[in-house]
Write a structure and sequence with these properties.
The complex is a heterodimer. Helix content of chain A is 11%, strand content 17%. Chain A is of the alpha+beta class. Chain A has a domain of 52 residues: Alpha-Beta Plaits, CATH 3.30.70. By secondary structure, chain B is α/β, with parallel strands linked by helices. Chain B folds into two domains: 215 residues, 3-Layer(aba) Sandwich (Rossmann fold); 135 residues, Rossmann fold (3-Layer(aba) Sandwich), CATH 3.40.50. Helices cover 40% and strands 20% of the residues of chain B. Chain B has twelve helices and 17 strands. In chain B, the strands form four sheets. In chain B, strands 3-2-4-5-7-6-14 form a seven-stranded mixed β-sheet, with helices on both faces. Chain B is globular and about 70 Å long. The termini of chain B are far apart. The chains are: A alpha+beta, B alpha/beta. The interface between A and B is medium-sized, with 17 and 27 residues.
Chain lengths: 92, 404
């Protein structure tokens, strides 16, 4: 709340979002983050599809990776991984 | 002035006919007595190809208003109608419509809320949503219903307002009673209401019109916490204040076309009035009749038929009532546990800080459709005269016309 925010005169009507959801850094909500064991990963991409935040993307090489600026650490990816190659670990 | 036609219509038909002439993009509604005639008539217009409207026959009133919210957010003109428990079921969505600044128009045919079950008229339903951020217009007769049903779009869609509008008419007394109504030709209405216009907002993808458009996406009404909600609510407060400026403008334009204008309230024989009643809806038609009788007997009686209840026209009310010695406030709703009826509280608050103010008493009447007869209203004026003589109000809130 320390940043200066616009007042009612300035804000657009209709309570529309002035920022994209990408601009909300939800990564700092989380306690844990996914840790991928790529030796066992089959590149099935289910974690990418299941991630409710869209924080898991698919890399050029076919493996998935996490965007820690947006990952809330919910653990859905680890739960859904069919080969259990994702472990939730404490964020530093 | 535009040439008009005199037709016989009840209040519901007047609302449906006006909606037909406006030709809204979407109508979503669910039948409920005494509103059913509106959606029945309107669905006939749809079936007969007289309108281009997408008619959505929904499974509940909650869905009816939700459909209107979606349609209006997408840029459509959306209309619905309901009554009593139907409005109660919509309650959640009434706040969403106003919070997202969607100028939906809804006819509320006032009916007593259950329980016990009652289908007749009182204002408990619309008074229950008086804080939901909708403009509320109360009608005294079917002509007012027709006129308000056209003006509503111009008021709600005004760039400085952007609020949903509720047109309230008394169940059966107005909704099912045939009256003379002057109507405009279709093309005059079409020109009057024009096309819905949109303001520009700065969304997350840049500047765009305030409506859902896949080319420039907008998120409307998402989570809004401690840091923004308050600002958005104050914007709604300001929109209501703006409506007080916009309503007379819209009304003046309507008068040029029809010769009829209403303002916030209709005074009757108020110039030298010593005792006056203020109230909402069809009761006020009977009050007019009673005033004429009392005047013949030498009683200086007058009345204010309040048309615009939200936003509450404080300044105009002060002008009309400050010099009147005794004012009776007619409430057709009860606010359980409150100091008085909702209109009474508003009128009293209006005068609290004034040096010059009338003695004010509250008369709750007509609950569940109990008849507001000339005899009953005359009795209220007699009570006001007693207060005048005594110089004080002994009973603040009176339940008039109830058996003891």
């Amino acid at each position: 709340m320390s940043e200066s925010k616009p007042g009612w005169r300035e804000l657009p009507k209709g309570a529309v979002s002035t920022k994209s959801s990408k601009d909300y850094m939800t990564g700092d909500w989380g306690i844990e983050k996914p840790d991928f064991d790529r030796d066992r990963c089959t590149k099935c991409m289910l974690c990418h599809f299941y991630c409710p935040e869209g924080a898991i993307h698919v890399r050029e090489d076919g493996y998935t990776d996490v965007d820690l600026k947006h990952c809330k650490g919910c653990g859905v990816c680890a739960e859904e991984c069919p080969v259990k190659c994702i472990t939730m670990v404490r964020k530093k | 002035m535009t040439e008009q036609k005199l037709v016989g219509m009840n209040g519901d038909e007047a609302a449906a006919f006006a909606a037909k002439q406006v030709n809204p993009d979407v109508v979503a509604a669910y039948p409920i007595t005494p509103q059913t005639i509106i959606v029945e008539r309107f669905s006939e217009y749809v079936a007969d190809g007289e309108v281009d409207t997408e008619f959505v026959a929904v499974e509940s009133e909650h869905s009816a208003l939700t459909t209107c919210v979606g349609a209006a957010a997408a840029g459509a003109r959306a209309f619905t109608a309901t009554a009593a428990n139907g409005l109660a079921l919509m309650w959640e969505i009434t706040y969403i419509a106003s919070g997202m600044r969607l100028p939906i128009v809804m006819t509320v045919v006032n009916r007593a809320l259950s329980g016990p079950l009652n289908i007749h008229s009182d204002h408990g339903d619309s008074m229950g949503v008086r804080d939901s951020g909708w403009i509320q217009i109360y009608c005294e007769n079917s002509q007012e219903v027709y006129d308000a049903s056209l003006e509503a779009w111009k008021i709600g869609e005004h760039a400085d307002v952007l609020l949903p509008v509720m047109i309230c008419l008394d169940g059966f007394t107005l909704s099912h009673t045939m009256e003379n109504v002057m109507v405009l030709p279709d093309d005059a209405v079409k020109e009057y209401v024009g096309e819905r216009e949109f303001i520009t907002v700065e969304g997350h993808m840049g500047e765009t019109e305030l409506r859902l458009n896949p080319e420039v996406p907008l998120s409307m009404g998402p989570v809004d916490l401690q840091d923004y909600y308050f600002e958005h609510k104050v914007q709604q407060v300001k929109a209501m204040e703006h409506a007080l400026k916009v309503i007379p403008e819209v009304d003046a334009e309507y008068e040029k076309m029809t010769g009829r204008h209403y303002g916030f309230m209709n005074p009757y024989r108020m110039d030298d009035a010593e005792v006056a009643l203020i109230g909402l809806g069809s009761t006020m038609g009977t009050v007019r009749f009673v005033i004429d009788q009392l005047r013949e007997e030498g009683v200086k009686a007058g009345m204010i038929s309040l048309r615009i209840y939200r936003p509450f026209p404080v300044e105009t009310l002060l002008e009309y009532l400050a010099d009147v010695p005794v004012v009776g406030v007619l409430d057709k709703a009860v606010s359980f546990g409150a100091p008085g009826g909702p209109l009474y509280e508003d009128v009293k608050t209006t005068f609290y800080d004034q040096e010059k103010k009338p003695l004010i008493a509250n008369y709750v009447h007509g609950l569940g459709g109990r008849d507001a007869s000339p005899k009953l209203l005359k009795g209220i004026y007699e009570d006001l005269l007693k207060i005048r003589k005594k110089g004080e109000v002994t009973t603040m809130v009176n339940y008039t016309g109830v058996r003891e």
